[in-house]
Amino acid sequence: MNSQRRPPVQAAAPPDSLGPQHLTTRSRRDQLRDNLNRTREAIAAACSDAGRTPDSVRLIVVTKTFPSSDAATLVELGQTDLGENRDQEAAPKAAELGAAGLEPVWHFVGQLQRNKAKSVAGYADWVHSVDRAPLAAALSNAANAHGRTLNALIQVSLDGDTARGGVPVADLEPLAEAIAAAPALVLKGVMAVAPLGWEPARAFALLNECSERVRRTDPGATEVSAGMSGDYREAVLAGATMVRLGRNVLGEREPMA
Ligand SMILES: *Cc1c(COP(=O)(O)O)cnc(C)c1O
Question: Where is the PTM N6-(pyridoxal phosphate)lysine found along the chain (predicted)?
Fold first, then answer.
């Protein structure tokens, strides 16, 4: 699908030397700009096919495994929403960009342990992966301690295999109520990853049913975070309001160790 290869990337920069202009080669910048434009056009085309306006879908570029210099370049290119899935990687990236005066809207999209809540609540604006009440409580307490509020999405496990994160469909309502009652969380909607082997359309239709149920608890919880590089078109056709794309914009990731 994406045959581009990443150019050789410089060694990771020490935190105080984040100079996007220095670290990002012109060709990498051009590549990111082209990928971003192409991706935005493809989302707009999917919106048009769905009879929706392009501004009804928010693009979140997932920068995991890519260097801070790429994230900084994306912000400079006008991409305001960035996603990460591991606190160990996200926290220093957010700090580096902040030190360089760049303040993207950070979305935490990965499985989250309660003991990371304090760190995540310090930089994330959105957490897409709230899947149990104790985590919601920990995030709310942590956000409160930082004097912030967090936008929370309920991650739903559409196939019930909760090993990959997410609350089982049957347990949605009590979690929605717990999040709605958490003082420093704002319940915004639902999120899911299409289960392996499922037709994306089937997955996103079930997610829409979950969204309806959550909106019965909180009518303002209208966001639906669905769609990755392989299935974002189907997600937009099914009504997603947020798509989370990594490879489409940044290129293939190195295989995880
Ligand atoms: C990595 C990741 C994405 C982006 O995946 P791509 O296939 O690179 O688009 C989206 N959502 C979550 C939860 C992820 O971990």
Answer: 64
Ligand 1 in reach of 228 Cβ (< 6 A): yes
Ligand 1 within 6 A of 116 CB? no
Residues 6+ apart with CB under 8 A from 190: 153, 154, 155, 156, 207, 210, 211, 214, 221, 223, 224, 225
Q: What structural domains and CATH numbers belong to the chain?
A: 26-250 (3.20.20.10)
* Residue to mutate, 38, 58, 62, ligand 1, most ligand atoms under 8 Å from C-beta: 62
CA atoms of 250 and 59, how far apart (whole Å):
13
Say what the pLDDT of residue 256 is.
64
Whether the predicted pLDDT of 38 surpasses 70:
yes
pLDDT in tens, 164-201: 999 999 999 999 999 999 999 999 999 999 999 999 99
Question: Of ligand 1's atoms, which has the minimum distance to the CA of residue 244?
Answer: 10
